[in-house]
Write a structure and sequence with these properties.
Length: 175
Amino acid sequence: MKIALLPAALALCCAFAHAEGGPDVTADAPPKELVTQVDHLVALLRDGFATGYPEATMTQTLTLSKYEQVTLAVFTVEGFDKGNSYNQYLAVFEPDATEEGDAHYRLIDVMQIGGDNFRAIQELNASASRDEQTRTVTFNIPAMANSVDDSPNFPSQPVVIALTLEHDRLAEVKP
């Protein structure tokens, strides 16, 4: 019986290692300047008990035009009111440089995008497009939403979150 359980246990360990950033994960760590900006946002958005969960931070840089990029950061703040709850936030940054040439990320906007009994972005794989007439940017972000039968932290319904960025303000486009 113990021998029969060994392959299942090994498979579970390998799956856990992969999910936790094991050797098969190829995502680069966010630049330290971006991590600093996210840390500042966590400090502003948390209550006296909540903390950031830096290991869950995801970033992606998208090209909007030949001369314009934005960097998206999805980050998690957990433990509000000493509880087991969490919120996911999306921040949009403009990559920039200081006068000295050091990397800098200017915050454009931030909004809550997920959390308990709501939805979760499990992998940041956004797409972006710009309406050249209005200059409005539209982001589409795959996510998982909670259905009626889901446990609070285990959403199962695939969705795409549609957001607009207009005049440096994010807004969700409701279907």
